[in-house]
Amino acid sequence: MAQQRASGIGHLPAFDDESGDLNTVVEAVKGSRNKFKFDPRRSLFIHDSVLPAGATFPFDFGFVPSTEADDGDPLDVLILMDEPAFVGAVIPCRLVGAIEAEQTEKDGETMRNDRLIAVAANSQLYADVKSFADLPSAIVDAIEHFWISYNETKGKQFTPIARAGRRKAQSLVDAAIKSKG
Question: Which pLDDT score is estimated for 70?
Fold first, then answer.
């Protein structure tokens, strides 16, 4: 009898074996105030928080499965695509860069909390975006500003320290896969 591969989001690899695309899982939908969090113990998405009135997620936001970042959670990823998806959707993507950042918690502890930027593999609107250089700087500025204000509402400080390209983003994923395994 052939061995079966474990299934479910908790066992999804960071990269698709066939296409090489980055697997991403949506936890917050573009235009929504709601943020959900995947609970691997129960294999469910649990409502985590609500943004203040007037604030919404600028793009779909989620995580890269089978990774672990410095904060103990999977790597964070902002997904540029044509239309909002839904919570729990798996979106095959290509990495275009990362916003390297430090986050200071309410208790004063500071850690790295980088944000990957990826484009949905099947996007028509962002089909030509292969790197940060292909994005208008106003979009990247708006993304950084969103994370700064998002963290302020939670009593935290988010400090961008660098805008990294595709290679650095890839190395962040590779390191997070190694740290989990």
Answer: 87
